[in-house]
Amino acid sequence: MAFLPPWAGVLVYFFCVSLAGSDFSDLYPPLWLKSPGQFSDYRVENGKYIIDPWVYSERMGMYKILVNKTASYFENFVPDNEQNILWGLPLQNGWQFRTGRLADPRRRKDCGYESGDLLCISVDSWWADMNYFLCALPFLAAVDSGIMGISSDEVMLLPPPKDQTNFCLNVSSCQSSFPEIMSKWNAFYQHLQYPSSSFEDLLKYLWAAHASTLENAGKIFEDRLEYYSKPEADFGRNWCVAVEYLAASLFPTTLIITHEFQKGLPPRMLVNGDRAPFISDFTDFQNAVLLVLSFLPRLDNSSAHCLIAIS
Ligand SMILES: *[C@@H]1O[C@H](CO)[C@@H](O)[C@H](O)[C@H]1NC(C)=O
Ligand SMILES: *[C@@H]1O[C@H](CO)[C@@H](O)[C@H](O)[C@H]1NC(C)=O
Ligand SMILES: *[C@@H]1O[C@H](CO)[C@@H](O)[C@H](O)[C@H]1NC(C)=O
């Protein structure tokens, strides 16, 4: 799978050409400006910053600190931190929030709904659990790498209301539970600090860490997909495969490119009866992306590492 899908190159070119001169703040994920932007915005208990990653703004704040603390390593490329390749993570979390994917899929509580607690992130959401691993681990590995300006025992994440053993909460417990993923994120931060690393080198280490994270988390949370409509569950599975293609193509997850790419993602949860390319409230681009995704597992079913049961 070490090839660049031709469409990826074309899309990247198109985005770069069509987006010169945007106002960056329009591209930020929902509630970005209102989320915590430094450690001192969080609560302190017993000398530790306490972060509740099951509240959307607090989880987004972790990304905001991460993107901020890594900005200086990307300034060689372009000012304004637009080229920071960590933007892909908060933007995806923002898309999940905006499209209802962080809410309780069984609606047994009002977690994540406007009628209840909109900022609540449900531990029953497959998207939210997968994203936890793509937030907590990169964040804690960054702390461990020393680039966040605090020491490893100075931050603690709060557990979700249930299934707590699936989630590690601090640097030491993540290292002992998920040593392979943590060491891949650590490798990324190490290369980030080498002046000799090229943009492409960094993408390589970022995507290696990202893919390893999804592969491990996917196995833990596969059963959550049962809470969804068949089209949404299929989309989740296909998305996992698509991410492996994005990884193999070293898709540059900068602010602008990720934002443009997201215009092709479903703007709401999929429901029974949704069938690309015929979903009437989706754009042509969204229908096309969904259709292409549905073919990916058939192109290469050996690549579906983040899922067990794909056929
Ligand atoms: C990082 O955060 C600090 C404090 O909030 C702020 O002054 C600075 O401008 C931020 N840097 C970037 C690149 O966003
Ligand atoms: C990390 O979290 C675990 C529980 O998940 C706890 O037992 C341990 O004391 C914590 N370590 C630090 C350094 O806070
Ligand atoms: C997909 O997997 C099946 C068995 O799981 C195998 O028979 C088939 O050859 C695979 N197809 C491709 C394109 O790898």
UniProtKB/TrEMBL annotation:
UniProt KW Signal keyword: yes
Keywords from UniProt, A to Z, are: Signal
Q: Please give the GO cellular component terms listed in this UniProt entry.
A: extracellular space
Cleavable signal peptide: 1-22
Matching Pfam families: Leg1
InterPro entries from the xrefs? Answer: Leg1 (IPR008499)
List where this protein forms a coiled coil. Answer: none
Name of the protein this chain belongs to: Chromosome 6 open reading frame 58
Organism, by scientific name, is: Panthera tigris altaica (Siberian tiger)
**Gene that encodes it:** C6orf58
